[in-house]
């Protein structure tokens, strides 16, 4: 342990040791890989523990130098700053990921830094690390529903429905509140992974428990049914929204039209498309792609081409998916 009076001397000794023990290439790897060193971290009084260098083979260091551990508050500050930099400048993301991973390795995850670590892993799309953070917090009884909800959201975006469902069930066992947002994220995770039956079961569970099911929840469930080829179930949910006074959005209609496409219901797809326009609901590239595909599946290649041709006048961009749907319609016609 070193005091403030000998901090600089200690760091000089560490640097000298590194230079004497490592080749120039290995020195560069150590300093460039470890953001605690590169960020100019100072060793605070009473905070320095030890510096260990793992074995290096030939001119390449096999692994990084274990970090000189700064004071807890300073470590958390560095993590927060690294997160903010990574949000605006993606080339800083690897630094942030390294810092967050080191917290796990050192067993330094706490309630004060866990959310920053989770958000860093969210940026890096590493859901497995988010689950490690949750596990570390659970070991000391610090995990909250906010941590779980953030981790579930990341699993959803990574199509990790099993992991998301495991976290969701853990929340129930811990007696944590599972609200509309949590349920909707789980349903969305199932939707992205083609688990329509689970999505529908969770949707129904929300109703039984009196948890509010909003437009986003309905959209996610309708999309899950669409991806599972359950167009009649999707239609039932679509109609239910109207009865409940929930505004059906571009996402709602696009998912429903896509469900009609998969079921060969091209006439109904066109009716829904016309209804959107009559109600002033915006029609985007996804909507056009779905209705063109529906027309193509129904052998209506002329209608498909007419829809493709009107898109620029409607201010809707034509992409490769739309062109592919139109070409498929011509081939089938």
Question: In summary, what is this structure?
Answer:
The chain has 333 residues and is an all-alpha fold.
- Report the oligomer: single chain
Mean model confidence by pLDDT:
82
Category by helix and strand content: mainly alpha
Q: Mind summarizing the main beta sheet?
A: 2 strands, antiparallel
User: How many H/I helices?
Assistant: 18
* Pattern of helices and strands: HHHEEHHHHHHHHHHHHHHH
Overall shape = elongated
Strand order of the largest sheet: 1-2
Estimated radius of gyration:
27 Å
β-strand amount: under 5%
**CA-CA gap between termini:** 80 Å
Topology, number of strands: 2
Uncertain runs are 1-7, 29-33, 40-68
Structure in words:
With 333 residues, the protein is mainly alpha-helical. The protein has helices at 7-21, 24-33, 35-38, 72-88, 93-106, 114-123, 127-139, 145-157, 161-173, 180-192, 196-208, 215-227, 231-244, 250-262, 266-279, 285-297, 301-310, 320-332, and strands spanning 56-57, 60-61. The protein has a two-stranded antiparallel sheet.
